[in-house]
Amino acid sequence: MATATTPDYYATLGVPRTASADEIKKAFRKLARKHHPDAGGDEAKFKELNEAYEVLSDDKKRQLYDQYGTANEHEIPQGWGGGAGFSVEDLFGGAGGGRVTYTTTDGGGFGGSWADILESIRHGEGAFGTDWDFGDIGGGRSRAVRGQDMSVALDVTFDEAFRGTEKRVTVRIPGKEEADTITVKVPAGAVNGGRLRFKGKGGLGENGGEAGDLLITTKIAEHPYYSRDKADVVVDLPVTVAEAGLGASIVVPAPDGTKVRVKVPAGTQDGTVLTIKGKGAPDVKKKGATGSLKIKVRVEVPKTMNDGQKKAMEDFLAATTEDVRPWA
Question: Is there a contact between 152 and 216 (Cβ–Cβ < 8 Å)?
Answer without folding.
Answer: yes
